[in-house]
Fold each of these.
Amino acid sequence: MDNPILFLTILLPPFLGALVIGLTGRYLPRKLPGILGCATVLVSLAASIRGFVDLHHVEGALLEADFGVWFAVAPLTVRFHFLLDPLASFMTLVVSGVGFLIHVYSIGYMRHEARDERFFSFMNLFTGTMLTLVLAGNLPLMFIGWEGVGLCSYLLIGYWFTDGAKAAAGIKAFLVNRIGDLGFLIGIFLLVHAIGTVDFQALAQPALFESVGAGLLCGIGLCLFLGATGKSAQIPLYMWLPDAMAGPTPVSALIHAATMVTAGVYMVGRLGVLFAASGVLPIVAVVGAATAFFAATMALTERDLKKVLAYSTVSQLGFMFLAMGCGAYSAGIFHVYTHAFFKALLFLAAGSVIHALHGEQDIRRMGGLLRKLPVTGTTFLIGGLALAGLPLLSGYLSKDEILLAARTSFVPLWLLAELTALLTAAYVGRLVWLVFFGKTRIEAAAWAGVRESPPVMTGPLVVLAAGAALAGYVNLPHVVAHEGAALLKRFLAIAGEQAITASAAAEVAGLVVSGLVCFGGLALAYGFVVRRRAQLHARLARPGALGRLHALLLAKYFVDGFCMRYLAGGARKLAGVVHFLDELFVDAFLVRGVFGLLVRILGEATRLLQAGRVQAYGMALVLGGAAMLLYLLLSEIPW
Amino acid sequence: MLAPTFLTGPAPLELALAPLVLVITACVVLAAALFRRGSEEERLVTLLVALGGCAMAFLALLQLLDRPGEAFAGEIQADNFGVYTGLLATVATGLVLLGVLGHTRRYGAGWGEALSLMLLSLAGILLVCMAGGLLALFLGIEILSVAAYGLTALTRRRGRSVEGALRYLILGAMASAFLLMGIAFAYGATGTTSIAALAPAQKLAHLDLTALELLALGFLLVGLGFKIGAVPFHTWVPDAYEGAPTPITGFMASAVKVAAFAAILRLVYTPLGTAHLAGLQNVLGVLAALTMVLGNLVALVQTNFKRMLAYSSIAHTGYMLLGVISPAGGPGAVLFYLAAYVPAVIGAFMVLVIIGRDTEDLEELGDLRGLAREHPALGLAMVVFMLSFIGVPVTGGFTAKLAVFSAAVDNGYVLLAVLGIVMSVVSVAYYLNVVRLMYIPAAQRSWYRGPARIGERAILATAVVVLLVLGLVPGEVLEGALDAARPLELLALK
């Protein structure tokens, strides 16, 4: 059903907000940019809810809007076509809902900044482009949103651009994303070449792919997946996300945890039929599981509060891709949704801690903060336990579905995923303990000044904490809920999803194992971090396998060093050679030499001619005309 | 009972309404100028009258959209091709008039004459765009040319102006002779002056008119090649562009060019033209190559901004000729190219007009030095125009070049398309030189002071927005252009 008004009310307000705040924010009263920014997202949220409700009354559960032709290059016609199906509707709810809470929180977080209109303008622009990405009805339109969110991410990571390191982090994110985007683009081109359509509705027809060669199809899938790894920080393109924490914390929560980084997962779900047909799903699953595991190990030793959460995000995104790779698309999207709640909560609560400590991010210089920050601490604890997979919280339910899918498709991946879940609970336990419990390691003078954040910041925390605890109940396992089970899965009904069949006993076993793994991880953390911290440090200090492992993890497997040394170094050498060639051959020889001489001769010759007399001009006209006539006559008349 | 007009097609007078309105407005303006030549207020009023004439012509043309018809023994016809080109030329003229809104003092001498000549010229242009017969075509071309000669010589006290106009007149007369000769041969070969009926005669054993047909086409092409400014018939362009007052140059580079391309497209895509299409394509292909190479290379060494833009306009003629010789998709691409070229060229000349407001016409490249630092908005607009000339993505120039070059490739002119792309790369040097000059500091500040006037702002903003729209969302306009030109293509592909 066509409903252009609905789409306009979802999409336009954030863009308008970005424009108005960006252009006039300087002249507005101090607090107005923030309030305006929240208001526009609230309008989007209301419209998204309306769309969600409408969807239940529409035949085929599909709303669409067409705003004319964008470009037409035969045989391809790309239109401004948006569609709202259950999957898109669900994502718009997450984006605008969580986005709204984070906008509200930002009013409090940014209040010490002299000016914040640039911040809210970018945040609104981000929301608008992210909604474009989600609602796009074809790949090029999605690519606009895709590039748009990348741009906003870059702008906001480098928000404090006078700080060189932060600006550099923005550039790193942008560059790494370029590689993925290039893959995405090539994937689109290959798709046009192979099939000739880029419309999502057309691409949901499995019959479309039958006539395409397996190799080409696999190439398309791989290129598109490369795009997904860039945006969603998976191996090999994950390095930018930890650095992206240089941006303000609400940015980390909105862009680098809840929404943008899940765009890759969303894209795989959108193109579910294509991915299933292309045969790259096993690769998706392996990459996801491997990323989940390695990122979790790195989170174990990280000392920066936000970076622990960043590695945890990378790891959780890995879980989502594992689900996608197993064909359990709805499980992946389910985890996107629960993760949006608890990870946004964790980041915002972390932001509240950092805010209270005036910028301190090193967890070795925290501790005991629960007493000083009761609301922040409690909500962080809830978010952390949801992330660790404590039974009955949202993360437990969504992660369990992924583990079930992994177990039914490939057992080694399942084992790796369970191990990762164990590590997850362990690093969450470590983090929570070091920040909020035990004796404080903050100096007494600073300790006295620690204050809980204002209600405009803690309010969103409480709402998100409720979400982190309860969000999972929309998608309960069969064995528990019987008829009411898997509501979300049935609602989403993603095309290309593979059915997962498991007996009741298997489901129960999975639930029990997940619970045990969580408690096991927490127990590990308790054992090493709380009880035997001194012994652990002593062991690590001594040379040995454990010490070396610790050093390896602290250095993040030396990946950044490797990239700088070999990739960046190689590129620099290549640039040197090219520069030399350009200077010597192109500039000096071609441009200034051969070509320059030619131009000068021609130019002077024409100048002489042009300076000249009208007779010469007339002669040129007549001679040229005569030559033309002669040619025309000679070419067709046999003499 | 009379049926409503939209069922029967437009009435004869309706078809001729737009040129008629313009001629009448021109007479009114001229009469006013004869009897009252004086205050600035009076000049402003005449300008508004002229603008009103343009607006009425625009509406009259708009009425004819999607309502094909012909009248006056087929000499005037309305099809979407003619209406689109006519609308484009009218809008271009209106923009130029809007641009001189704040310059009543500066172009004081001959104000009324200039306005009426421009309106008359536009009437001729519309006649060319909507010509259904060779006579109307010739009439239109003469009206627009004679008016253009006068416009070029407008600033009589400047030697270059008169010199350029005189050259233009002499060479233009020669070109008209070629054109008339072509029309005569065409009538001799086919027995008709109707463009649509211009078809090769039945071949008989004792009578082969092929030579006559070829002569007709050849002469016509020389005459029109002169009007579009293709090498080697381009020699008048730099002198006339440099000699004319800058707003007039903008008018000649936009509206007049539209008419010339409308005429050449109409004549190549007649049954007569398509019967000898291979030969015409070869000839015009060579002209295109020469035009692109010479226009771009000579533009590189110019120091005068107006002369540089004159050679750049020659270069763009070359690119568009690629579209003319590509039957599948080419004519539509040329229409789109014109739509993207017109705002950029008017905008570029208008920047020149604006900065010279308080002095006299500034036209050296050096005059632009430091402009963007003093007037950031003007500088930015100029950057957009230059980028569009180059054909950088997100500007209309990119889409236009893409359309023309891909049409050329589709029709097998790969080498010419590559040459066009290489020449576009060469053109980066002189277009970006303008940008470079604008952003380096300068000591001299001879250009205008104070804020830009409303008409000037309106023009520049319109031009920039149109260029960005054509670059970002060209879909509907491109389809409109391709649809309008489809009848021409069908004729060639038959």
Note: The longest strand of chain B covers residues 69-71.
Amino acid sequence: MREASAQPLRAAFKQALQEAWAGGAGSFLPAAFFAGAALLVPLTLGGNSDQLAEISGAILWIALALASLVTMERLFQSDLEDGTLELWASLEGIPLAQIALVKTLAHWLVSGLPLVLFSPVLGFMLGLSPELMPKAALSYGLGGLSFFLWGGLGASLTAGIRRGGLLIALIALPFYVPTAIFGALVLASPMQTPPEFYFLAASTLFALALAPFGMGAALRLAVST
Amino acid sequence: MLTYLANPHRFMKASSFAVPISFLAAAILIGFSIWQGLYIVPPEAVQGDSARILFVHVPAAWISMAAYMAMAGASFVWFVWRHELADIAAACIAPIGAAYTLICLATGSIWGRPTWGTWWQWDDARMVSVLILLFMYCGIMALRAALPVRQQAARACAILAMLGVINIPLIKFSVDWFTSLHQEASIIRMDGPAMSPEFLYPLLIGASGHVLLCAGLVMTAMRSDIFLRQIARQRRALLSQSI
């Protein structure tokens, strides 16, 4: 068998970045959604700042989960429609799981990382205490990655379905649970690196180890039909 | 025996006997456990009469989990060996398992209200995990409904069900991390059951009745699915003849 080159992987990575910018707003769009979702809560809560500070960490987790879900629908759909996916599937030596992983990571880079960088600002607005901020941003980064990986699984399973957005949310929700629980517990703990933080990291690694194979199998299926 | 039954014709023949037998046996066993539970078993020392609901709640909880494992097992068999019947089984188990999960949640709530003073408690690990189980069933059913081609739906659902099974221990572990209000597991323990035998035996009899009921329902659903396919095949054959 011919020696596999990393060229298709690089191309997939670049293509995913370009897709994000091609919409015009780039990574500002998910960030704006993130801010909008997070800032709806204080308005609906009626301006009680003590209550708000207490749940500010949770609000950001929910906003992160929502933002990761709304950007997912088109992740593999356009590749399926224009035949790129078929091309990738026909490559020898590069499993689809790798391509899917690279695409998801690139997608996280443009749609997930900005949210993490943005979270301190929103945290201040929601009254999250400043000493929690580094820990919070780090766990949003880790947890967000796991959200994107499982969301990617949902996206690959529903790649052939029009308007599969809600379905992605339903499929990915059970997989979000461990991350959401450990993420919330990290913020609730008074320690700087509580044990839950390592469990959060472990759940992200778990997603990193498992989700790409699921995505690969699902994309193989989407191509074959 | 399973490979013998993997042939749809043999399955249809065997299940035409197995379905009425399992329904009849289920009716007797469940009837016995409910009669015991409602009239014979004394009121529980602490919870009084409300504990009688356990003869429905506990079997439903067991079957909700067992059905998911069965569905994932069937998905695995389909994914590896492509036995058509395994996919039919996976498709038919999902709604029945979801129904048992719903019964488990509903009876648990009804039981929780008089004994703990609350319908629902987010602190409780088992409640939350059963709720997540319900969502997993819903996700798989929705995915199957959304994919129009049967083969495609079968493969996608198999992938999802298998990944879900691998994820279950992690979900369980994370949910357990919450402090638990629920009583500890009291039947399957290292040092033998903690439940008094007068409760335990009717419960086990009722649970085996529910297993048979569930099996009978799944087989009935599978039979109707196979019949529908036969009708579709015959209709196609007739159409091609007339053309």
Note: The longest helix of chain B spans residues 197-242.
